[in-house]
Every structure is written in C-alpha cells, then in structure tokens.
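Support case: LLP complex. Customer-provided input:
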Amino acid sequence: MTNTIYFSEDRLHVESLAVSDIVQAFGTPTYVYSATKIEAAYQHFVSAFADRDIMVCYAVKANSNLGVLGLLADQGAGFDIVSQGELERVIRAGGDPRRVVFSGVGKQDPEIARALQAGIACFNIESRSELERIAQIAAPLSISAPISVRINPDVDPMTHPYISTGLKENKFGVDIETAREIYRRAKELPWISIKGVDCHIGSQITDLAPFKACVQKVAGFVDELASEGIELEHIDLGGGIGVSYNGESVIDVRDYANAICEILKDYPQRLVFEPGRTLVADAGLLLCRVVTLKENEGKHFAVVDAAMNDLLRPALYGAYQRIEPIAQLPRKEQVYDVVGPVCESGDFLAKERRLAIAEDDILAIHSCGAYAFVMSSNYNTRGRAAEVLVKGETMQCVRDRESIEDQLRLERLFSV
Ligand code: LLP
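Agent response - structure generated as follows:
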C-alpha cells in the first residue's frame, strides 16, 4: 500500500515534506499524520470487499481529531462512536449521522436522546436494561430506535488482555442466550426497530482464526433468529485487525475480507465493520527532541520531550513502538531506554533500543496514528502535543499545542 513515510537522502519524509521542516514549523512534541495514507487505507479496506454491500464505520476512538474525521467523511466513511462527544465530533467534521453506529457498555440517557435526534444508523446494545432504557427515551420523542445486540461469542482473540473484549469474562456484549431474549423483547417494544447483530472480539488481532470462529458463531445465531421470524438487515463484525509495530506479520485486509465473505456467502445482509487502528496507526508519527543523554552505572537513557502523558501505550501495555532519528547522522551508537520527563519509572517510550543519537536530535516514533494522541493527558501539567496533517507538500496544524493557560482555564482557587 502507499508508503508516504520514507527516507530520502538520509532524511525522513512524510509525503513530500522533510520531517525536519515540520519540526521547524511546529516544534516538538508533535503528532504528524499522512492524509494520503489514511485515505489509501480506507480505500484498501473498502475495495477488499469488492461488490458486497458494506458500511465501514471508522472507530472514532482510535484518532478523533476533526481533521482526520473530515478526511474519512470525505471518503464516504461511516463512524463507530462510544460517546456523545464522539458524535458531536463526527457531525462537526461533516460526517453523516445516518452512517453512525453507537457502541459502548455505558450509554447515558442524554447521549441516547441526542443520538436518536441526530438519526444514527444503530445502537449496538450491550445489556437488557439498555434496551429498556432506549425504548423509554425513544417513545416520548416518537423516534423509532434502530438497534442491534452485541453478542459476546466467547472467542479468544489472542491479544493483550486489556484489549480482549470477546471472552465471557470481559464486560462487553451479552452471551447468545441473553441476546436471544433481548431480541424477543425488542420485537414487542413499539419504539424499537431491530436492524442487526454485532460483535467485536478485541483489538490488535494478528491471526485470522479468531475472526473466523466469531463469524461462524454470529452466522449460526442469525439463522436461529431467522427461524423465529426475526430478520436482520445487517451484520456488524466490529474492528480489531492488528498492525505491524515491530515487523510482526499481520492479517492482509483482503484475506480477512475473503474469509468473511466465504463464511457469509449465503447471507444477504449488509456487512458493517468498525476498523480503527488499521486505518490510521501507520499514518502517524510522534516527533520528539532529545533533551538529555545520561548514564546510570552503565545504563543509558535518552530523555526526550515527549512522555507517557503523550503516548501511553508503552507504559500501559508494554507496547513496542518503533523509534528512530529523523536524520541519519554520524553518531556513536548506544543502547538506550528512551524516557520522558514525567516523574514515574513507568514513563518510558522505548526500552533497550540501539540508537545513534545526540542531544537535540529529533526522533520519530512510528505507528502513532491510533490510540496515541487520544490517550494523552495533562499529567505533570504538561500541555498536550500539537497535531499536524500533511498532504503532498501541504502541512496544516489540526490541533494547537496546549498552552499552560489552556490547562488552567477550567480551574479556580477555592475561596470561602
Ligand atoms: N469497535 C469497538 C466496539 C471497539 O471497542 C473497538 C476498539 C473498535 C471497534 C476498533 O478496534 P480496532 O480496529 O482499532 O482494533 N487503546 C488500545 C486499543 C483499545 C481498543 C478499544 N476498542 C491500544 O492502544 O492498543
């Protein structure tokens, strides 16, 4: 697929721009995203399903920047949201609410009302009480609520335990027995309209087998519902395709599509997908500057100006993110832990990496387009990084670096 992040004349580029020029314009730490790469990833996903009727609902949680959402809306994407905030972002970015599915275990009443009024495509219901609640909110509004029930197929996605969602010990979805009862009840409720079924078994999945097992279970359940006279318009298979953070082999979207279409070839329903990571992860870099190189009894540290508050994945999941200097310069090689200035030993971005770097060099952390900026915080009263979108020779800041004033704006002294 289109590689828009590459080295040319020993200098890292994003699309037609040298990363050093981006740093000059916007400083560090800064997130940079390649627009062309995001668009290509979306088109690659869509084209893998050839002539099958599908709706690709990008999982907004992966990267919810308005600029990124706008790009995907222009490509015709739908969106998978988990909060009213995400819905407002989608609308602000020009997305079509009629192509929005609403996931999540804890939807609150005002969020449900707003989504009903906006006319979303489907509520992915995760419990009996959620169905009753949606029905109660829909009735006085005289809006028929489109629903799907998220089934928990009890399939092991073989990924990090924090991002496994389809095992019975996880909080997500309902078992097939319960789902059957929820559909029967949904059929009786006047302001509820049954649209589909959905599932999502986890994230960063690198093997096709769990996806296949899940689709088989969903297909069997669709048959069961049909035998009770409950016909569905769509089958939503969630997201979860992994990306290669460290050269590991990953699922080709075309193989994923072929496997699913084969299992569901006799099912006329529209297929819905909720990919997040696979559309945006590889399109993003986090750029940071080496502040200090130091040594503690033979252990070398590169202290950079990005930290766990900017990129939490290494600290939270022990995740590997590739890191390299943006220019290949003659430097002494050394094995470093790359760490931030935050006061926690868990504040690391990379461990034991062989790097040829000096103080003030700029480093690029790869695969930072998904679950990176969105998980950032103000810990240690650090302003969130800037976000920049690049297309061809154009770069544009799509989120300003947060100032100290921005951070203090919502607070006040306690005065009694
Ligand atoms: N649909 C639902 C209902 C989800 O919960 C998720 C992700 C997705 C779709 C998108 O999954 P994807 O295609 O991106 O794998 N912060 C973690 C990942 C958490 C994923 C949460 N749910 C990380 O940094 O790895």
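The mean pLDDT is 96.

Case will auto-close in a few days if no follow-up is received.
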